[in-house]
């Protein structure tokens, strides 16, 4: 429950929010951006998980031959070997990455649009609307996400769509809080008052004046939350509630590998490494962007 | 009052202090939060109930399994009171909670309070251990990093902590198992030894889980503390201390760190909720009989009274942690304590 009274503290990043260029970063701390470039490259590389499987002559991620189970890395035809049921590990990693990225992206987009709208609207309208919306979000944030995820997985069955639905329930309130804090900071600025005095309608205020100004903060937050959501998706799949076997996801590959962790630790290490590098890349990119746009 | 003159004065001063504390803005904020927390807790419990009753399947079916005939299921439903409408069950549950009765587990028939009393201490011990690990690591590393911003120690620790932050705790848990339980069998991979049996074995069985939770947390705290200390080092009082000729470590530890610890304290308090969430999966990996494991079982069994009670305990823990943070803040920060009434 993020009960930090963010609204009371005034931010440093007002000039950036108002569209002024961020102060040039010089000296020893200019390094922030340099990290962002390789991070972006890695993110793109992972995004290419959508392309790799069609370009590379890979085995199918499911329906492997049980007689080819537990092959080591660099086996003929299986660059990273095979798992305990004979599926190609590299192929599963790439297809699993696709699932992870798709899921995280979908959850983030839902959070961004739905949460962003709720938060901005609550902050802009204020008063009772704000109070009701915020208490509702408080409940959702305090509500253990696991209950909901388990409930959804249990009743609707595990699967990508249901995982996205479950994860959205805790992405939306967090994005909404963020959008609300950013909008509250904007509300008192002169250009907002001017726009209001011109008789601008609410929806136009939201679309033309608020949205472009809170977007940098929400996008930065979204990048940082890409990593977080991939981790949670992994956790759900790990508990057998996210993406169901035999379909691959990094989370359920780790879970599958855990069963034979002392005999074949590589089956845990490969998906773990992929998950780690992907999350790290998103975090670095988010951090670099935060420094660039000077948002909190 | 029968007190003699001297103690009466100090009692008076004590009352003055308490009064100053009670009217401090931070405590009023704490009180307001407590009032807000009540509807939030109620909302959480209602939402849990709604989700659990909308779901197909109930405890009777889960307990008896797929082999059971509809008649058997119906019989057990009658026994457990599951045939009554959901709102009626919720009303009677809430009535029980208000009178301090959390009901009985549907699966085991044990009182819910007994189950929680058995399992909560294990989770609390794990969380405290993890917190201790993280703070014990974060403070010295942050000091070392903040001593020379941009220096080798700084860049190294910031790089490592970024990596640690990107590591999922279940991944770290498995890596620790591979390294310290499979290859170098130093710690047990699974199992739990109660504190009453052997303190050493108990700590050994909790070390890997505590590290899995504590290390990423340490990375988080290190980054926060470093940033805060670096900010403090720009303050006038630090410049004054330096000008007086106080050594660099003295300035860092006695002056900057002291102030930065407040920020850390707040974050630790606010973080407690996430921490408790993390124990669910970590307890599962290391098969620790804590509250997280009970939670997963309860959800699988559709054991609504137990689920409700655990959700309530977790949410209350979060609220209390936030409250305690506020109060500690008021007690520790002289500016808040004596703000109203200079002593």
Structure overview:
The complex is a heterodimer of chains A (296) and B (343). Chain A has one domain (80-295): Orthogonal Bundle (MetI-like fold), CATH 1.10.3720. In chain A, 68% of the residues lie in helices and 0% in strands. The model of chain A is unreliable at 1-32 (pLDDT under 50). In chain A, helix 6 runs antiparallel to helix 7 (160-187). Chain A is an all-alpha fold and 296 residues long. Chain A is built from eleven helices and no strands. Chain B has 343 residues and is mostly helical. Chain B contains 14 helices and no strands. Chain B has helices at residues 5-22, 25-54, 59-64, 70-80, 86-98, 112-147, 152-165, 169-183, 199-232, 236-243, 248-285, 291-301, 304-332, 334-337. The longest helix of chain B has 38 residues, at 248-285. The two termini of chain B are 24 Å apart. Chains A and B meet through helix 5, helix 6, helix 9, helix 10 and helix 11 of A and helix 2, helix 7, helix 8, helix 11 and helix 12 of B.
Specify the CATH homologous superfamily of chain A: MetI-like
Number of strands of chain B: 0
Major β-sheet annotation of chain A: none
* Unreliable stretches covering 5 or more consecutive residues of chain A: 1-32
Percent strand of chain A equals under 5%
CATH architecture of chain A: Orthogonal Bundle
Catalogue the unreliable spans of chain B.
Answer: 1-7, 337-343
Helix content of chain A: 55-70%
Q: Termini distance of chain A?
A: 19 Å
**Tally of separate domains of chain A:** 1
Mean pLDDT of chain A: 76
The H-and-E topology of chain A, N to C, reads as HHHHHHHHHHH
What is the count of DSSP helices of chain A, taking H or I runs of 4+ residues?
Answer: 11
How do the helices and strands line up, and which of them pair or pack?
The complex is a heterodimer of chains A (296) and B (343).
Chain A: H1 14-17, H2 31-47, H3 52-55, H4 89-125, H5 127-142, H6 145-156, H7 160-187, H8 190-197, H9 202-238, H10 250-258, H11 266-293
Chain B: H1 5-22, H2 25-54, H3 59-64, H4 70-80, H5 86-98, H6 112-147, H7 152-165, H8 169-183, H9 199-232, H10 236-243, H11 248-285, H12 291-301, H13 304-332, H14 334-337
Helix pairs in contact in B: 2-13, 6-7, 6-9, 6-11, 7-9, 8-9, 8-11, 9-11, 10-11, 11-12, 11-13, 12-13
């Amino acid at each position: 429950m993020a009960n930090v009274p963010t609204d009371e503290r005034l931010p440093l990043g007002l000039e950036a929010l108002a569209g002024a260029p961020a102060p040039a970063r010089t000296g020893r701390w200019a390094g922030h951006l340099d990290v962002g470039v390789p991070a972006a490259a890695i993110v793109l590389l992972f995004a290419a998980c959508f392309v790799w499987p069609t370009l590379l002559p890979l085995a199918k991620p499911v329906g492997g031959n049980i007689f080819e189970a537990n092959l080591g890395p660099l086996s003929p035809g299986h660059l990273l070997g095979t798992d305990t049921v004979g599926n190609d590990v590299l192929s599963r990693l790439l297809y699993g990455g696709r699932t992870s990225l798709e899921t995280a992206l979908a959850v983030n987009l839902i959070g961004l649009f739905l949460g962003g709208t709720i938060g901005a609207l609550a902050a802009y309208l204020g008063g009772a609307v704000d109070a009701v919306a915020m208490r509702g979000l408080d409940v959702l944030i305090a509500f253990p996400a696991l209950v909901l995820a388990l409930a959804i997985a249990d009743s609707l069955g595990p699967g990508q769509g249901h995982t996205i639905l479950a994860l959205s329930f805790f992405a939306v309130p967090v994005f909404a809080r963020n959008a609300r804090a950013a909008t509250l900071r904007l509300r008192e600025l002169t250009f907002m008052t001017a726009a209001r005095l011109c008789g601008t309608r609410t929806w136009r205020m939201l679309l033309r004046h608020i949205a472009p100004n809170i977007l940098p903060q929400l996008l930065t937050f979204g990048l940082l939350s890409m990593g977080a959501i991939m981790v949670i998706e992994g956790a759900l799949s790990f508990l057998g509630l996210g993406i169901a076997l035999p379909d691959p996801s990094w989370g359920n590959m780790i879970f599958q590998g855990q069963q034979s962790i002392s005999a074949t630790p590589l089956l845990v290490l490969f998906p773990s490494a992929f998950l780690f590098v992907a999350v790290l890349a998103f975090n670095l990119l988010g951090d670099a962007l935060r420094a660039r746009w000077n948002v909190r | 009052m029968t007190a003699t003159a001297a103690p009466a004065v100090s009692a008076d001063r004590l009352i003055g202090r308490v009064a100053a504390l009670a009217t401090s803005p931070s405590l009023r904020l704490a009180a307001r939060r407590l009032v807000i927390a009540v509807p939030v807790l109620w909302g959480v419990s209602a939402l849990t109930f709604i989700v659990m009753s909308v779901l197909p399947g109930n405890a009777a079916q889960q307990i008896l399994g797929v082999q059971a005939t509809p008649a058997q299921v119906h019989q057990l439903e009658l026994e457990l009171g599951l045939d009554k409408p959901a709102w009626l069950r919720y009303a009677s549950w809430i009535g029980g909670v208000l009178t301090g009765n959390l009901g009985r587990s549907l699966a085991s028939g044990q009182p819910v309070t007994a189950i929680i009393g058995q399992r909560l201490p294990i989770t609390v011990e794990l969380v405290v251990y993890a917190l201790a690990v993280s703070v014990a690591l974060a403070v010295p590393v942050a000091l070392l990093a903040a001593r020379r911003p941009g220096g080798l120690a700084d860049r190294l620790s910031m790089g490592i902590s970024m990596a640690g932050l990107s590591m999922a705790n279940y991944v770290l848990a498995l890596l620790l198992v591979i390294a310290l339980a499979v290859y170098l069998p130093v710690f047990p991979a699974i199992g739990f030894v109660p504190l009453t049996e052997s303190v050493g074995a108990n700590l050994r069985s909790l070390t890997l889980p505590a590290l899995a939770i504590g290390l990423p947390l340490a990375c988080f705290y290190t980054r926060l503390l470093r940033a805060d200390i670096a900010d403090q080092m720009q303050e006038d009082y630090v410049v004054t201390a330096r000008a007086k000729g106080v050594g660099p470590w003295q300035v860092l530890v006695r002056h900057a760190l002291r102030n930065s610890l407040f920020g850390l304290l707040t974050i630790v308090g606010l973080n407690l909720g996430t921490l408790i969430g993390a124990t669910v999966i970590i307890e599962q990996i290391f098969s620790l009989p804590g509250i997280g494991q009970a939670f997963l079982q309860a959800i699988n069994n559709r054991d609504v009274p137990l689920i409700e009670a655990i959700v309530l305990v977790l949410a209350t823990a979060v609220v209390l942690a936030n409250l305690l943070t506020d109060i500690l803040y008021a007690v520790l920060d002289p500016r808040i304590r004596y703000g109203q009434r200079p002593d």
